[in-house]
Specification:
The protein is an alpha+beta fold. The protein has helices at residues 3-18, 58-68, 97-110, 131-134; strands spanning 28-36, 41-45, 75-84, 115-120, 126-130. It has one domain: Cytidine Deaminase, domain 2. The chain starts with a helix and ends in a 13-residue tail after the last helix.
Amino acid sequence: MNDTMTGNGLIAAARAAARHAYAPYSRFAVGAAVLLADGSLVSGANVENASYGLSLCAETVAIATASAQGRLRDVVAIGVVGGSMDGVGDTPVRPCGRCRQVLNEAAQLGGRDLQVWCAGLIGDAVEEHRLSQLLPDAFGPRDLGLA
């Protein structure tokens, strides 16, 4: 699969996941789709909570789902989309710092530098990054002798 097909497919899957976001407080839906080494996808959507600190980001939900399936080391790439649930704005959304760290755990365990595709809920603008660009000099399992 070439990078363009991978990116387009991940963005489409992330947009589908974002439709299931539970975001009554921010009204900002985020969806994520994780590509695994065998070509399968795992997705997630953000889940807000009245106690804001307990909210879950879409990327974390998707990575936790992959981990629950015993597939954390198989993560190859992720597509992330987000935007207003009112359909305003098409600016690509990038993972927050916490999610970058969660993604780094999977990346180091799998011995990969993950591709990270970013887009808005609407629009054609898509960005491609490497996780190492988004989180340089990351601390992770390698630092603890686990990867």
